[in-house]
């Protein structure tokens, strides 16, 4: 219904906050959102009205409409449907003229803000985008090293490509940052998340610029490649960068003979980055701008030991290697950090830092001092100087304070008692407000500024306030509210700065030698370090917490811990294992048998240490299913329990509940028990992989059966009669194949049939209500791995009905079924519900999935085309196709599609090939001569390894991931979960995976693609 004013006249855009109503109406009409009777697309117009500057947003959108041309209809339609796109795009356009210019110049970039492709990027993701912009080759090494990627686009073309790609990344970050202002339903982006993303984007920019610099430098045998490391300082080093800022760096070369070439490479990097992204500031190097641009590591260390001033050590607090030679950068960082934490002992150290802050403040021009939110009184520098001074004084003895990001350091100071918790909380609140305000000011024209708007400029203040989420309240305008907030935070920061920065305690503590401040027992820390604990002080704190006091519990822990520490030392993550042990012990502190079991059953302690030092998922489940601990001393109960018995027990226990919520809670509890039992047996090497897959599948099927049963009973009771339909659950995908992993969803179809004398429409409505309740019960939030019921493989996909009758399925597959649907049905089998109906469904689909005469060549080509598209489009951006277990080369999809093509072509004539199991299907294919035995063995090995790696990653990280980890510690833990012996290089895990999947991919290319 059209909107009208109270008088009945045609509404004006002015009602939606547009100041130039005539121009706004013209632009809204051109967009198709306004008619003579008012707004046509009110949600869109209303969202525009919530933009920080609605007129600017609409004007920029009008420019974008002209730029996108025929694609406007698509964009316009998505704006009406996609709340995320609407919020992000309108907020950005209503804040920044520069991003509007970018979108006009790059009209396709609006798609970056669409919800279906919008996601947080990692550093690798940012780097990949920028390297792709200059068509860098895909090398394994870091950019700026001999084995690293080199750009194939140089000069002005590279600068233009990098500038556009980098602006596109900033657009994504800005969309996440300000989108909630327009659409409150969008998730909030905390300041630290935005700052970290901007820092990652800047680091990626440095790496991409380095790849271009290498290409332009032309190193060869006569001019060898130098080893150069780029060290980020300042806000980039602290992962707290602004939208627009110089990036402070220091350059380090490996050897004196590298200095000439390294200086040339560093200069090229600075030129390319300055033209493409931001200015590079190398003034924090030894001797400042008067010093050499590049020095060797020894040159840096000699300078710091002999001539460095206090502020230079303060600057090193945030130093971190970000580009170039990683080993050299790591050695620089390791070498300078001890110097940072001894600088506090220098004579007059505290006074030097205080005097420097006063000098900075004195240099702020008087006419802007009260609007200078970075350097002025109560500004950002007040917080940062206070935090850094406290860090450098107290961090000599307390390593928890050695944090580069200001907020993390501030929180650590509060946790350690060096700052009152209330003061720390107030400083965090004010610092975040000032940084967000700084970001909004810079976003307007993507210019470097730290100056608050003129207090009398109501129009600008209004826009900035709205960009921060402030709105008018009563007689107070948004701009006035912003000024009041700004002054409140400045006053609070200044008060706390003076309280902390000039406290007499700092001088007193700084005069105490570092060794005298250490409260830990040296022998204990040395022992822990020798055992392999990376943070012996942290480990000692865990031990002290577990053994403190005079209780019986503390006494038993004191007896157990020497043994447990030795056991944890043999695991991939001793520190994480000890932390997990402490958490489990605290959670089970009131469980009377817990410590007694560990003390009296040595095998339990041994197995528990291995589990906790390897897998994060185990302690997460263990604190909620502690009864599984008892099974660690009973191998048959742990690993040899009959799978059907476990499923039957689960169904029986849940069946005692009539309330759906209590039944679902019981199902979750029993599933948690089984999940943990299987995980423990798996990690301890007590179960074969196929048994693990089958056990997880049976647990899922039992949960589905239980949820279906209680839902059928409760929905029937609501209708006041017996169930009017029989329902069967058909497992698809890996559930159908009995090959689920720890983090797998359940792909299913639901089929129903009216009971005697029941109306078909009533039966379908009843079954649909049942299915909706099943999904609701199982999909409820939980701390356990999720129970996602996926029915997207049903006819017509997400647009199709949740449930169909058997006849409806027959009709659909006979008339409209496509080859990919026949392929999906290859793994279909009844897993829950009415067994007889499930078997009739299986019989009904046999002619579809096992076609007479196999497939004609057109359908074979169609399957290959679909697979090729999956290979090119479904792999996540930034994922490594060589180590992606699901969609990578020689991974799960490769093997499964190869078998499924053979089944579609030959299963009609070979009944033994009609199996939903991948491993069984490969065995039968080899016996029937469809696969060479060696090929079948290689495919089976690759598929099994990929499944095991996926499971191992889930166990190690506590969350699903299809990518083999890159971090050495996680990779070592994955190797341990796979059964590699202690001490094996983590690289062997990758090498073995690459070898196995490479062989499998060769088979896939010959058999599936017939290359």
From TrEMBL:
It comes from the Bacteria. It is an enzyme of class 2 (transferase). Residues 513-1011 are annotated as: Adenylyl transferase. Its cofactor is Mg(2+). Pfam families: GlnD_UR_UTase, GlnE. Residues 88-332, 606-842 form the Glutamate-ammonia ligase adenylyltransferase repeated domain. Keywords: ATP-binding, Magnesium, Multifunctional enzyme, Nucleotide-binding, Nucleotidyltransferase, Transferase. SUPFAM superfamilies: Nucleotidyltransferase, Nucleotidyltransferase substrate binding subunit/domain. InterPro entries: GlnE, GlnE_rpt_dom, NT_sf, PII_UdlTrfase/GS_AdlTrfase. Residues 1-505 are annotated as: Adenylyl removase. It catalyses: [glutamine synthetase]-L-tyrosine + ATP = [glutamine synthetase]-O(4)-(5'-adenylyl)-L-tyrosine + diphosphate; [glutamine synthetase]-O(4)-(5'-adenylyl)-L-tyrosine + phosphate = [glutamine synthetase]-L-tyrosine + ADP. Its EC number is 2.7.7.89, 2.7.7.42. Residues 356-501, 882-1005 form the PII-uridylyltransferase/Glutamine-synthetase adenylyltransferase domain. GO terms for molecular function: [glutamate-ammonia-ligase] adenylyltransferase activity; [glutamine synthetase]-adenylyl-L-tyrosine phosphorylase activity. The keyword Hydrolase does not apply. Belongs to the GlnE family. PANTHER family: BIFUNCTIONAL GLUTAMINE SYNTHETASE ADENYLYLTRANSFERASE_ADENYLYL-REMOVING ENZYME, GLUTAMINE SYNTHETASE ADENYLYLTRANSFERASE. NCBIfam families: PRK14109.1. Involved in the regulation of glutamine synthetase GlnA, a key enzyme in the process to assimilate ammonia. When cellular nitrogen levels are high, the C-terminal adenylyl transferase (AT) inactivates GlnA by covalent transfer of an adenylyl group from ATP to specific tyrosine residue of GlnA, thus reducing its activity. Conversely, when nitrogen levels are low, the N-terminal adenylyl removase (AR) activates GlnA by removing the adenylyl group by phosphorolysis, increasing its activity. This is Bifunctional glutamine synthetase adenylyltransferase/adenylyl-removing enzyme. The gene is glnE.
């Amino acid at each position: 219904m059209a909107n009208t004013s109270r008088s009945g006249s045609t509404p004006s855009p002015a009602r939606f906050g547009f100041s130039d109503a005539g121009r706004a109406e013209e632009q809204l009409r051109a967009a198709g959102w306004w008619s003579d009777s008012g707004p046509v697309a009110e949600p869109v117009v209303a969202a525009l009205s919530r933009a920080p500057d609605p007129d600017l947003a609409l004007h920029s959108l009008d420019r974008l409409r002209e730029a996108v041309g025929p694609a406007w209809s698509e964009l316009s339609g998505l704006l009406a449907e996609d709340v995320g796109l609407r919020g992000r795009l309108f907020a950005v356009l209503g804040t920044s003229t520069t991003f509007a210019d970018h979108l006009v110049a790059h009209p396709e970039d609006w798609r970056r803000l669409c919800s279906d492709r919008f996601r947080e990027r990692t550093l690798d993701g940012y780097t990949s985008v920028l390297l792709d912009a200059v068509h860098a080759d895909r090398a394994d090494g870091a950019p700026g090293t001999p084995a690293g990627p080199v750009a194939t686009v140089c000069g002005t073309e590279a600068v233009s490509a990098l500038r556009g790609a980098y602006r596109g990344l900033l657009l994504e970050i800005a969309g996440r940052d300000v989108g909630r202002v327009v659409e409150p339903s969008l998730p909030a982006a905390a300041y630290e998340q935005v700052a970290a993303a901007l820092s990652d984007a800047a680091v990626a920019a440095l790496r991409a610029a380095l790849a271009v610099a290498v290409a332009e430098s032309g190193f060869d045998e006569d001019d060898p490649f130098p080893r150069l490391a780029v060290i980020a300082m300042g806000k980039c080093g602290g992962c707290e960068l602004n939208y627009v800022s110089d990036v402070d760096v220091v350059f380090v070369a490996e050897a004196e003979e590298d200095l000439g070439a390294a200086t040339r490479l560093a200069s090229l990097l600075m030129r390319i980055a300055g033209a493409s992204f931001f200015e590079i500031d190398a003034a924090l190097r030894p001797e400042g701008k008067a010093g050499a641009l590049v020095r060797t590591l020894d040159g840096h260390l000699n300078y710091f030991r002999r001539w460095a001033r206090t502020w230079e050590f303060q600057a090193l607090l945030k130093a971190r290697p970000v580009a170039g030679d990683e080993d050299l950068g790591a050695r620089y960082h390791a070498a300078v950090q001890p110097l940072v934490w001894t600088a506090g002992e220098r004579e007059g150290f505290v006074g030097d830092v205080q005097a420097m802050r006063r000098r900075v403040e004195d240099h702020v021009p008087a006419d802007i001092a009260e609007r200078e939110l970075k350097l002025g009184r109560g500004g950002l520098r007040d917080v940062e100087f206070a935090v850094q001074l406290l860090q450098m004084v107290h961090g000599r003895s307390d390593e928890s304070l050695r944090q580069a990001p200001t907020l993390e350091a501030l929180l650590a100071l509060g946790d350690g008692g060096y700052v009152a918790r209330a003061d720390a909380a107030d400083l965090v609140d004010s610092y975040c407000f000032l940084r967000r305000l700084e970001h909004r000011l810079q976003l307007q024209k993507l210019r470097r500024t730290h100056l608050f708007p003129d207090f009398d400029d109501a129009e600008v203040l209004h826009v900035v306030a709205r960009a921060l989420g402030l709105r008018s309240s009563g007689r107070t305008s948004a701009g006035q509210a912003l000024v009041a907030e700004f002054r409140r935070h400045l006053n609070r920061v200044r008060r706390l700065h003076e309280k902390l920065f000039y406290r007499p305690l700092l001088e007193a503590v700084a005069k105490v030698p570092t060794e005298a401040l250490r409260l830990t027992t040296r022998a204990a820390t040395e022992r822990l370090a020798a055992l392999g604990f990376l943070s012996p002080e942290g480990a000692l704190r865990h031990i002290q917490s577990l053994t403190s006091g005079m209780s019986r519990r503390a006494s038993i822990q004191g007896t157990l811990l020497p043994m447990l520490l030795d056991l944890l030392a043999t695991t991939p993550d001793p520190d994480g294992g000890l932390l997990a042990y402490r958490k489990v012990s605290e959670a089970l502190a009131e469980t009377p048998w817990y410590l007694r079991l560990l003390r009296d059953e040595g095998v339990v302690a041994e197995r528990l240490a291995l589990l906790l030092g390897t897998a994060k998922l185990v302690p997460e489940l263990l604190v909620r299913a502690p009864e599984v601990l008892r099974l660690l001393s009973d191998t048959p109960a742990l690993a040899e329990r009959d799978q059907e018995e476990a499923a039957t027990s689960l169904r029986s226990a849940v069946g005692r509940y009539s309330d759906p919520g209590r039944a679902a809670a019981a199902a979750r509890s029993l599933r948690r028990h089984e999940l943990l039992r299987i995980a423990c047996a798996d990690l301890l090497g007590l179960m074969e992989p196929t048994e693990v897959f089958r056990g997880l599948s049976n647990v899922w099927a039992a949960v589905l059966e239980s949820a279906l049963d209680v839902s059928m009973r409760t929905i029937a009771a609501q209708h006041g009669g017996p169930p009017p339909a029989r329902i069967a659950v058909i497992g698809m995908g890996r559930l159908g194949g009995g090959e689920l992993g720890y983090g797998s969803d359940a792909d299913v179809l639901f089929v129903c049939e009216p009971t005697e004398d029941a109306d078909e429409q009533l039966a379908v409505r009843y079954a649909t209500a049942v299915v909706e309740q099943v999904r609701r019960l199982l999909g409820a939030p939980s701390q356990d791995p999720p129970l996602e019921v996926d029915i997207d493989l049903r006819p017509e996909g997400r647009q199709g009905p949740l449930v169909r009758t058997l006849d409806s399925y027959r009709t659909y597959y006979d008339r409209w079924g496509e080859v990919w649907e026949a392929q999906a049905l290859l793994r279909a089998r009844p897993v829950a519900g009415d067994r007889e109906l499930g078997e009739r469904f299986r019989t009904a689909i046999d002619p579809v999935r096992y076609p007479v005469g196999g497939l004609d060549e057109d359908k074979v080509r169609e399957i290959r085309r679909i697979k090729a598209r999956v290979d090119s489009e479904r792999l996540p951006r930034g994922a490594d196709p060589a180590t992606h277990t699901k969609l990578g080369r020689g991974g799960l999809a490769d093997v499964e599609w190869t078998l499924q093509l053979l089944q579609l072509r030959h299963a009609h004539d070979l009944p033994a090939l009609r199996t939903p199991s991948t491993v069984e299907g490969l065995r039968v294919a080899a016996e029937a001569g469809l696969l060479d035995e060696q090929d079948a063995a290689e495919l089976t090995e690759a598929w099994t390894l990929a499944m095991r790696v996926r499971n191992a990653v889930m166990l190690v990280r506590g969350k699903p991931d299809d990518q083999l980890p890159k971090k050495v510690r996680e990779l070592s833990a994955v190797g341990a979960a796979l059964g590699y012996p202690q001490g094996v290089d983590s690289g062997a895990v990758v090498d073995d995976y690459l070898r196995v999947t490479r062989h499998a991919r060769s088979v896939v290319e010959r058999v599936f693609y017939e290359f």
